Amino acid sequence: MTQTKQPNEARPLAGRGSPSPLRRIAARHAVFLAVSAGLLAAIIAASLFSGSGEVAAGRAWQVLWSPDGSAASIVVHDLRVPRTVLGLVVGMALGVAGALIQAVTRNPLADPGILGVNAGASFAVTLGIAFLGIEAVSSYVWLAMAGAAIASVMVFGIAAGGGKGATPLRLTLVGMALGSVLLGANRAIGLLDASIYEQVRFWEAGSVADRPPETLTSVLPFIVAGLVIALLCARPLNALALGEDSATSLGARVPLVRGVSLLAIMLLCGGAVAAAGPIAFIGLMIPHVVRWIIGPDQRWIVVYTILLAPVLLIGSDVLGRFLVSGELPVGIVTAFVGAPILIVLVRRERASGL
């Protein structure tokens, strides 16, 4: 009698024991998430346990958990902790804003400055400093939000005019043109008066140090809202990356996706600029590096950018504490760190695709 093989017996044995593609992807993400979280924890520790105040790491660890009113405790709790937390929040905001802008414009070298959003926020704050005498960060927030919103609407409206629609190229060109005009206007206003120039110059350098105590609470609701919207937009942005026609055929409502993404960009950039001034390269480099490592899925790009963007910002802030006596603002350090990295990334063909 002939015996018939059961289906399970007919399966090749060579593939057994090797993980499926989905398991390999899951394992890869688990490793990368663990590495990203480890880097973030390490850089936060470096920020808390090093810097001004000449407080040894062991002493900083002790007073971090047991405040005793000593000079070391004041340095850790009043200077290092607020500075680190603000760097964490601002880094997340700038990084995710950059990821959204790169996805919306389909330009892998775009950053929050490319659509003129940062320039709009900066210009509004400069106007408030120069002509309204505003010095409180809580007022900066609303000015920055208004400036970012007006700039976003202007860029989107101008790019959408002429019957050709707001294509990525038109958005990029209009944003760059508007940003250049607002930057020039900022400089011109700063030259009107020496005191205005000093105040604007300090703020424009970009820093997370010595900010007023209300800074974080003033910007946090806007940045959290922007991050939530960004996470919700990530899946539709995957369809948008295929092109407008393909996205529409897949059921994505392209104008709505772009509009909501611009809202998130406005909230993130407005909050970050109001808190720390315009800081470049964070939103450009981190999403670019993440896309190079894990691919074009916007959902993962946003998640990893949330973890890694603060690493670059806080790391630059820590580096600035030791480069010169008196410290360098983080906005200057990110420019020094970012330019060489950007050149390397641009030269890598694989890194330039969305």
Automatic annotation (TrEMBL):
Residues in the signal sequence: none
An individual GO BP term: siderophore-iron import into cell
Membrane-spanning residues: 30-49, 85-103, 115-134, 140-160, 219-242, 262-289, 301-322, 328-346
Keywords: Cell membrane, Membrane, Transmembrane, Transmembrane helix, Transport
Membrane topology annotation: Multi-pass membrane protein
One Pfam family it belongs to: FecCD
Principal localisation: membrane
Alphabetical list of CDD domains matching this protein: TM_ABC_iron-siderophores_like (cd06550)
Region Disordered, annotated ranges: 1-20
Subcellular location(s) per record: Cell membrane
Gene Ontology terms: cellular component: plasma membrane
An MF annotation (GO) of this entry: transmembrane transporter activity
Gene3D superfamilies, per database record: ABC transporter involved in vitamin B12 uptake, BtuC
Family the entry assigns: Belongs to the binding-protein-dependent transport system permease family. FecCD subfamily.
Protein name as catalogued: Ferric enterobactin transport system permease prote in FepD
